[in-house]
C-alpha cells in the first residue's frame, strides 16, 4: 500500500513529539555551574551534564561546540553575578576605589563558587558580561590618565590577582595531610623564627595586602608619568 504525503507528515510530527525537548542555554549553564559547585570541576562533562538535565548530549552541542565552550559560558555567567557597588564606575570616582571595589566583588563571587576558579585558569573571558565589566573598568583607568597599554595591563593584573587567590580557596583533597609545620629552629632559620608569630597569614589578609601593593604600584607609575 502506498504511503501518502499526509501519512509521512504525520509520522514526522510524531517523531518530533517523541524527541527530547530543547533545553535553553541559560538552564544548561545554570546546571553546569551547579555540578561544579557540588562535585568539583573534574565532574563536569557533556555526558554528566546531559544526564543531570535529563537530556541528550546532542541537545547540548546545539548551543556549545565542546566542553571548552561550555566552560567559557560558565565563566561569563559568573561575571554576570559580580555585584559591584553602585557608583563604582561613575565619572569622578577615584580609580583606586573602583579597582578595589571590583577586585573585592570578583573575589566574593569566586568565593561563593570555589570549585569554578580552577576552570578559569588560562582563560581570557570574552563573553558579554565580562566584556561589559572590562569596558567600564578600562573607562575609569583611561579617565584617570593611564595610557591604554597600562590600563589594559592593570585590568589584567587585577583579574589575575583575584583568580590566583580564588584558586587557593578550593578545598584540598580529603586525603591530603593536615600536619602543622614544625617550628623553625632559630639557630638555623633566624629570620623564619622571627616571623613565626604571624604565620600562617590568613588568605584574605594576603589578598588584601597584595591588592594594596598593586594599587600602590599603579599609583606610583601614574605619578611618574
In short:
The protein has 225 residues and is mainly α. It has two domains: 20-64, Homeodomain-like (Arc Repressor Mutant, subunit A); 84-171 and 198-224, Tetracycline Repressor, domain 2 (Orthogonal Bundle). 63% of the residues lie in helices and 0% in strands.
Explained architecture:
The protein has 225 residues and is an all-alpha fold. It folds into 2 domains: 20-64, Homeodomain-like (Arc Repressor Mutant, subunit A, Orthogonal Bundle), CATH 1.10.10; 84-171 and 198-224, Tetracycline Repressor, domain 2 (Orthogonal Bundle). Helix content is 63%, strand content 0%. Helix 8 (128-143) crosses helix 9 (148-167). The model is unreliable at 5-17 (pLDDT under 50).
Residues in helix, %? 55-70%
Q: Structural class, from helix and strand content? A: mainly alpha
- Give the tally of β-strands: 0
Describe the main β-sheet briefly.
Answer: none
SSE arrangement:
Layout: H1 5-18, H2 25-39, H3 46-53, H4 57-61, H5 67-81, H6 95-112, H7 117-120, H8 128-143, H9 148-167, H10 190-194, H11 203-224
Helix pairs in contact: 2-5, 5-8, 6-9, 8-9, 9-11
Features:
Tetracycline Repressor, domain 2, single chain, 11 helices, flat, Arc Repressor Mutant, subunit A, 2 domains, 225 residues, mainly alpha
Amino acid at each position: 500500500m502506498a504511503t501518502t504525503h499526509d501519512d509521512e507528515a504525520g509520522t514526522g510530527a510524531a517523531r518530533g513529539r517523541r524527541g527530547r525537548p530543547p533545553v535553553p542555554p541559560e538552564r544548561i549553564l545554570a546546571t553546569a555551574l551547579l555540578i561544579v559547585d557540588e562535585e568539583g570541576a573534574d565532574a563536569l562533562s557533556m555526558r554528566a551534564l546531559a544526564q543531570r538535565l535529563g537530556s541528550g548530549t546532542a541537545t547540548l552541542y546545539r548551543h556549545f561546540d565542546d566542553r571548552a565552550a561550555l566552560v567559557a559560558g560558565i565563566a561569563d555567567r559568573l561575571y554576570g553575578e559580580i555585584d559591584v557597588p553602585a557608583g563604582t564606575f561613575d565619572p569622578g570616582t577615584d580609580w583606586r576605589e573602583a579597582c578595589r571595589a571590583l577586585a573585592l566583588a570578583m573575589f566574593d563571587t569566586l568565593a561563593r563558587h570555589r570549585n569554578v576558579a580552577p576552570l578559569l585558569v588560562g582563560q581570557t573571558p570574552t563573553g558579554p558580561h565580562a566584556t561589559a565589566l572590562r569596558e567600564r573598568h578600562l573607562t575609569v583607568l583611561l579617565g584617570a590618565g593611564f595610557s591604554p597599554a597600562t590600563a589594559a595591563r592593570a585590568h589584567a593584573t587585577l583579574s589575575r590577582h583575584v583568580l590566583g587567590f580564588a584558586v587557593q580557596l578550593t578545598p584540598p583533597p580529603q586525603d591530603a595531610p593536615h600536619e602543622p609545620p614544625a617550628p623553625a629552629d632559630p639557630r638555623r632559620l633566624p629570620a623564619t623564627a622571627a616571623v613565626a608569630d604571624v604565620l600562617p597569614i590568613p588568605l584574605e589578609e594576603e589578598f588584601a595586602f597584595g591588592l594594596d601593593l598593586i594599587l600602590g604600584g599603579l599609583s606610583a607609575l601614574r605619578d611618574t608619568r
